[in-house]
Structures are given as C-alpha cells and as structure tokens.
Amino acid sequence: MAIAEQEQAPLELESGEDQVTERPLGAFTRPSGGGGWRSWLFTVDHKKIGIMYGAAGLLFFVIGGIYALFMRLQLSRPGNSILSAETYNQVFTMHGVVMIFLAAIPLGAAFSNYLIPLQIGARDVAFPRLNAFSFWVFLGGGLFLLTSMFIGGWWENAPDGGWFAYSPNTGVLFSPSKGIDFFAIGLQITGIASLVGAINLIVTVLNMRSPGMTLMKMPVLTWMLFIVQLLLLFAMPVISVALFLLTFDRLFDANFFNVSQGADPLLWQHLFWIFGHPEVYILILPSFGVISEIIPTFSRKPIFGYPFMVFSGIAIGFMGWGVWAHHMFASGIGPVAVAAFSVSTMFIAVPTGVKILNWLATMWGGRIRFTTPMLYATSVVAMFTIGGLSGVTHSLAAADTQQTDTYYIVAHFHYVIFGGIILGFFGGFYFWWPKMFGYFLSEKIGKMSFWVMVIGFNLTFGPMHILGLQGMSRRIQTYSSGQGFDFWNIIATIGAFLIAVATAMFIANIIISRRAHRAGKTPDPGPDPWDARSLEWMTASPVPEHNFDEQIVVERQDEFWHRKWGKDETGRVVRRATSEEVAHDGSNTNVHLPSPSYWPLIAALGLPIIGYGLIYNLWLCVVGGLFVLGGLYGWVFEPVDDPNADGHHHDEGHETPDAPQAEEANEDSSEEVSVD
Amino acid sequence: MTETATAQTSNDHSEDHVSTLGVSNDKLGMWVFLGSDCLLFGGLISTYMLYKDRIGPDDLGPEEMFDIPFTSVSSFVLLMSSLTVVLAITALRRNDIRRSRIWLLATAILGAVFVGGQVYEFTVFYREGLGYTTNLFGTSFFTLTGFHGVHVSVGIIMLMSMYIQSMRGKLTANQEEKLEIIGLYWHFVDVVWIVIFTIVYLFPQ
Amino acid sequence: MATTEQLAESPGDNVSWVKEDWIYIKTAIILAVFTGIEVFTYFESVHQAPDWLLVLTLSFLMVIKFFLVAAIFMHLRDDNAVFTKMMVLGMCIAWPVYFVMAFAFGFLPDWNPILKVLFLFVPPSITGFWLGYSFKGGTGSHH
C-alpha cells in the first residue's frame, strides 16, 4: 500500500518544477499542474482534454485522408497498379476505421468535452480524472490500430475486412494476417474510451448544471451531445460483444462465426449494425448541434422551434435503434424484416427533416452574416439534405438491392458524413476558435478554403452517384476501361485532392492567424466576438482554467443573449449591456479545482500493451494488466482533490505560498484512527 | 484533528459542487454504467440462446451437461451474498465498523465460493468432453458464464480492497457511499445471474 | 433507508440491527423461497408440464426476483428516480432490439406477427409510461 501512503507527501516537493522527473515510479507525488507539456500530459481540465481530442482527431483525419488520396490515385484511371489488391483492401479498411472511430467520434468528443461544461455553466465534468483516462485510452487505442500498418512488415498486418468486418471473411481462414486482431482489439480499446466518456458526460449533464439550467433551457448543442452520449452508452456494449466474439474466434478458436459448426455469420451483421446505426447518429448529431448554435448566432434570431429541435433529436436517438437492418437488405433476412425496417427507415427521415426545416426557418427573415462558420453551417444544411435524400432512396428495399455495394452507397454516406459532419465540425472550429485559443482564424483564408473544400467535396462524391448507378462496385481495387467509369473517376480524384488542399489551407490558417495575432496585427476577440447566445461566451477568451468567475444563475434559454439584449417600451429589441459588461473577465483565482493526476495516463497505457500481448505474447498481457491495476489502485486511493493543495486555483506558473500549513494537515490525516 | 476532518471531507469532490439532482455523481455514474451493462449481457444472452441448440445430434448439449442441483446451490450462495453486502452497508451507516467488516468479508467469501463453483463446473464439463471449442453450445455457454464470472471476480477484488482498507483502519462511516456503490455493482451482478440461471439453466431445453 | 433516528442508535446492540435490517432479511428469505420454487420445476413430476407453462412461471418468478433485488437491495424504491430511469432506459432499449434480432433469426416461428410486435413494444412502453408517470420531478432542477 505504498501508493496510498505516498499521496500524503509534503507539499514543497509539489511546487518545484523538476520533481516529476526525479521521483521513481510508484513513489512520485502528485503532479502540480505547472506549465509546458506536463500540464497537458497530466491534466484533468475538460478544456485541455477537449483540445487534445480535437488535435488527435484532426491528426487522424489527415492520416485517414492520406489513405483516401492513395485510393483515389489508384482509381484515377483504369487498370492502375499503384496499390496491389491486398494493400488496397487494407487501405480502404483503414480509411473507414480511422475516419469513423479515430476522427469523427473524437472530433465530436472534442466539442462535447470542451463545450458541455461551459454551456451548462459548470466548473468541470463530473469525473475529471475519468475524462483524462478516456482521452488517453482513445489515443492509445488509435495508435495501436495505426501500428498495424508497419508491425510485421509494411502493410502486411493492417485490417483488411472493411470497416464493418463482415464475418466469415474476418475469420482466420479468410484473413490470416493479424489485421483483424488489430481491428477487433483496437476498436475494443477505443470503445472503452467512448463508454467511459459517455458515462462521465451523462452524469455531468444530469447533475452538474448551474442553478436554473433546466433540461429544456440547455442549448441545442448540449442537448444533441447529451443524446449522443446516451447513444454511445447503449451502443458501445453491443459492439463490445461483437468484437469479443470475433476476438475469441480468432485468438482462442471459438466457433461464433464458424460456419462449419453451424454458426450464423448474420449474427455479426446484426450485432455490428445494432451498434452501427446508432453510431451513424453518434456521428451526425454533434454536427447538428454545432450548426444549431452557429445558425441562430449569425441569423441574429433564436433557434426556430427549440422544443421541436430537442424532441426531434430525442426521436432520432430512439428511432436510430430500430433501423439497423436496412444495412442488411441484401443479406436475406426475410420479407417481413425487410418490410419492417424499410418502413422504419422512411420514418426516421421525418425528425431529420424537422431539423432541416427549423434551420431554414431560423435563417428566414434573419439578418444573416455570412462569416466562415455560417458558410459551413449553411453548406451542411444543403449537403446533408442531398445525402439524406439519397438515404431515403435506400430505404426502398427494391432499389437498395440494386444500389447496395456500389459507389452510390459510397456517395450517399460521404454526403452525410463529410457533407454533414466534417463540414459542420470545420464550421465549429472557425466559430469556437477565438473562444478556445483567444485569436480569430483568418476569415479570408477561411472563406477561400471553404469554397475549395465544398467544390472539391462535390467533385469527389457527386460523380460517385453516377458511377454507382452505372454499376461500379465499391471495394474493388481497379476497373477496366470501356465501361464508362473513366471520366467520372478522374474527376473524383481531382476533387479529392482539392479537399486535401482545403485541409492544408485550414492548417496553414491556424499557423498564419496565430502568428498574426502574436504580432499584434489582428484584434483580440474579446469574450463574445460573434454576439452569441450561450453561456460559453460569458467568460474570457481563451477560457480560464476555472471557466466562470462565479456561479451563473440561469433564468431563460439563451441566458447570455438576454443579459445583453432586451426590449424597450415600444417592443424593439435593444442592447442593454455590452458583452464585456456581462461576461466574466476570468480574474477570479480563488476557485477550487480538481488536481492533475498521473494515474489515468498510467492505467490507460496498460490497454494497448494488453492488446499487443493478446496478439503476440500472452505474457505482455500481464505487464499491461499490472499497468491497468496499478493505475486504477493509485487512482482510487488518491483523493480527487489533492489534500496537499491549498484549495485555491492558481494560474500556471504561480508558486504555492502556504505550504507548511498544508503539510501539517497531511501528517494528521495519515494518522487517522479507526473507530473500531 | 479538525484539519483532518477537512481533508477527509474534501475527498468527496462531488459534494463541493453543484448537484442538480441532489444525488452523488459517483452513484449516478455507477447506475449509468449498469444501464449500459444491460446491453452487454443482453447481447451475450441472445448469442447463447441463438446458438445453444445448434449442435450435432450426438454432441454434448445443455440437456446432458447441466447439473441443476449443484448450480442451484451456487445460485443460492450468490443470492445470499447480496444480503450480506446490504448488511455491511447498513452496519457501516450505523458506524458499526466491526459488523460491517464481518459482512464485507462474508460477501467476498460467498462470491469466491460462487466463482469456485463455476470453475468446478467448467472443469467437470471439460472432463466430460465439452471444451471451449467443441461446439457452438460450448463456445457460447463458456463465454456467457465466463463474462459473468469475470464480473463477479472484479466485484470480489473491489470488496477485498475495501476489506484491506478496513484492516488498516480506513473503513469509516464516511466511506459508506463507496461501499454502497460497490454494493450496487454486486447486486447488479446478482440480478444478471438471476436472469442467466432462469433462462440458461432452468428453462426447458 | 436510514433515518436520523436509526443513525443515532448504539452500534453494538445485537437486537437492533436485526430489527432495522429486517426488511433486507425478509427480502432475502422471499428470494430464497422463489429460487426454491424455480428449482422445484426441474424435478420430474413438475417437469412434465407443458413448456409454455414452465417458461411462463419461471419468467414470472425471475421478473419478481429481479425487481425485488433492484427495488429493495439496490434501494431504487426510495432513491432518486433518475437511477431507475437510467437502468430502465437500458433495459427498454435492450428488450426490443435483441428480440427483433431473435425474431430475425426465427425465434418463435409460430407467433403471429402482430403478437410479436406487441411482445416487442408493450413491455418497454408500459415500463416507460409507468416511470414517466410515477416519478415526475426526476430530471428537473433540484434548486
């Protein structure tokens, strides 16, 4: 129990800059926060974790994009041989897995982590260390998956079964490389991250709202993210079961998908899509939430039909559980099931349509400012509608059996995933960037990159509708000329590179804008650069570590807006106060904050080690298990708040003045006597 | 000693902050997790139900393997451990540390007896020729009950950690919530066994 | 469960803890009896009964045991409604989802489709409505 004892170490060690590196493992004191990389590595601050989620998500987005570029290069002309068939299988699988599990989910998690506590007026999430744990587990799982590219040979062991890994193709017999093992275990690990994060954020939304913030006063974004967390909570165990079955099949010769023993490969499809369809809404709802914040702000009108927005979100959340088999129309599930799922799929278009109409009605008659975030938000409405409509064509089982496994499907889900999710997230980046980092992203570069991206996106995926209806199969490494595929394929490849250019412009924008701001060439955004509505704009930019200087008491929906604006005697809306007058300036340093901790990182580190152990050598599992156990034990016996800390928040770099007192208190508490 | 008290109470982070619903974050977190675990066991039970009869005519199936009297006893043991953990919690709430420790240990032992029974059951099955890879019944049965056994074992580890804490004099009445949360987990595992026992073992095959 | 009066009682009193915890002991006895009845269905004479009757009886007992543990041991009976809601939400999703999957695999082939739909949606709906009706203030603001 040395661990428990050590948490009581005296405080002088804490405030020193170098104590972290000097102390041996297991006997180190708690990290004090401090500055530099350590403040990120051991942080439990939801904002830093949110930013790390965003950075990791963007990184994986770029990696997944590079895979896509290689695929497009391969398909740019008939009979190409840039990628071999085996490599192509691995590349499209990795593209799907990375984009969905390592880019889209964590980008949603970035917005959830950063914005939920701010929008409900909380200091932090309910379990700050669990939050750090979920991020590190996600990152570990993601890197674990990526290492499959080069462990045991360059592109030898990457997963090659498609992102949905249909059995029995994923059995050892048909996929003898270790790729599917990496797939199953890697997703299991990132699944743990999502589940833990979901539990954390659900408790946060339910139990950490500031006074007066009833559920029906929460911003639409928080509502959508809350629904997403509930979907994650209930969908993740289902994919866990499926992945466990697959892992046991491959590693321990179980029979779950062993057809020769009478197993039914459809079991995988059912379990996967019971998770997979809610997953679609897990991906899209954060983006819906983001644009539900952007559109009212730049239309200078409250969101049209707030309760309808909320309830259509809830309806999507529920109905999302009843449509999974529309992914399986071609698998022979029987006419009754096909008919039932066909109808339920048509129905789910209704709440989504409600949302589209509400965004349009919000813009209707508003004083619209077409800033970069607004451009992105409006493009989501347009592009998602196209993707949604092609989705409705899939709900007709007769049509779907023609379209399935063609590029028409690829076109459809890229219109919803790229056009709906990624464009929305880019809008969110431009919108919240000043809040997160304290400087504007350049509007000029932003608008340019927006147009390049939207044009590139439509050039890439628009032609795929045509290709698909012409009969070009997806997941095929190449095609022969003379089938009418050549022209549209080269167009799609050009479009893909335009998307890459636009992404590069976004990254360049970050660097250029940051430099310009450092050089004093661009104005400070202030707390509320867009004249926005929700609580996160009611504090300084970038948000101070303690979020708000004092507890906010909420009386209305869009509280911040109502504090700034009111009606005069004639009923005209007039400004009552400036944003700076209403917003907190972040000067309060007397706020109690949870202390940083090593344990989440240590516990999270164990999981990829266990993963490698399962694949290569079971002894490694013991090592990984020790990391997890040790991390969890250290965690449980470490108080949430450092008893050594003086209970006050200090901004980075401050010394702790009253160390000796705190030391005394700790010697006492270690001597605590039992009543027995 | 007054400062000790402050240090102790500040451990309970959730109490310092707003609690919209007036409940503890930790407890709500455990309930949220249990809600999600329903889907995990739902998936495993469905898999078992789908596969249990997909065996050859001469294969070992549930009918031949199950020893109902034996499993009934171990089910009863697990059921009673739910009672002992409640008694440990209420004793701790009354600040009756001694009795709380006894019940805590009793719960862990009952849990260990259950897991031991399961290990015994598995070995008997294995000796009779039903291995993990033998047929679909074996695969899905061992996976389902194995997952439950792992859950019970995790519970035992948590209970024993509490017990070791108590040997070091660290079990006090303000730990009650922690014990209650472990108790919730324990009861949930028991409830899952109630379902598994009925559906897997007792339903006519 | 524990009121302030109960907390004030002396720790070592043997009679008092049995009295206070009697509700739990009683529940455990009921659970044990139900388990006994369940196991009894296994024996030859009873086992001859038609399968549907056995399944119905066993399911009924299982549900009662489930609810007893949840309501009394896990004290959902007198704890905040949000706990019950989270748990029930999980079960209300699990029920139709996994049974739809089972039906797709040909579970209960003799049942009429309408009966299957009722089976899928009536239990979670009743539970959901009952919850919404009986705990109104559950997710509102506490302040």
Strand content of chain B: under 5%
Largest protein interface?
A-B, 64 and 57 residues
Cross-sheet strand order for the largest sheet of chain A: 1-2
CATH class of chain B: Mainly Alpha
Q: Please outline the major beta sheet of chain B.
A: none
* Secondary-structure-derived class of chain B: mainly alpha
What is the terminal-to-terminal distance of chain A? 21 Å
Helix content of chain B: over 70%
CATH class annotation of the largest domain in chain A? Mainly Alpha
Classify the fold: give the CATH topology of chain B. Answer: Four Helix Bundle (Hemerythrin (Met), subunit A)
* CATH fold category name of the largest domain in chain A: Cytochrome C Oxidase, Chain A
Q: How many domains in all of chain A?
A: 3
Q: Number of DSSP helices of chain A?
A: 22
Label the overall shape of chain A.
globular
* Cα-based radius of gyration of chain B, to the nearest Å: 20 Å
Shape of chain B: elongated
**Major sheet description of chain A:** 2 strands, antiparallel
Can you walk me through this structure?
The complex is a heterotrimer of chains A (676), B (205) and C (143). In chain A, 63% of the residues lie in helices and 1% in strands. Chain A has helices at residues 2-6, 12-15, 19-22, 36-41, 46-75, 85-119, 128-147, 179-207, 220-252, 266-299, 306-319, 335-363, 372-395, 397-403, 407-437, 443-470, 486-518, 559-564, 579-582, 599-616, 618-637, 659-670; strands at residues 565-567, 573-575. Chain A has 22 helices and two strands. With 676 residues, chain A is mainly α. Chain A has three domains: 48-80 and 94-258, Cytochrome C Oxidase, Chain A, CATH 1.20.210; 286-525, Cytochrome C Oxidase, Chain A (Up-down Bundle); 535-582, no CATH class. In chain A, a hairpin with a 5-residue loop joins strand 1 (565-567) and strand 2 (573-575). Chain B is an all-alpha fold and 205 residues long. Chain B has a single domain (22-51, 67-202), classed as Four Helix Bundle (Hemerythrin (Met), subunit A) (Up-down Bundle), CATH 1.20.120.80. Chain B has eight helices and no strands. In chain B, helix 7 packs antiparallel against helix 8 (176-202). With 143 residues, chain C is mainly α. Chain C has seven helices and no strands. Chain C has helices at 4-8, 14-20, 22-40, 44-47, 51-73, 81-104, 113-134. Mean pLDDT of chain C is 80; it is low at 1-11 and 136-143. Classes of the chains: A mainly alpha (676), B mainly alpha (205), C mainly alpha (143).
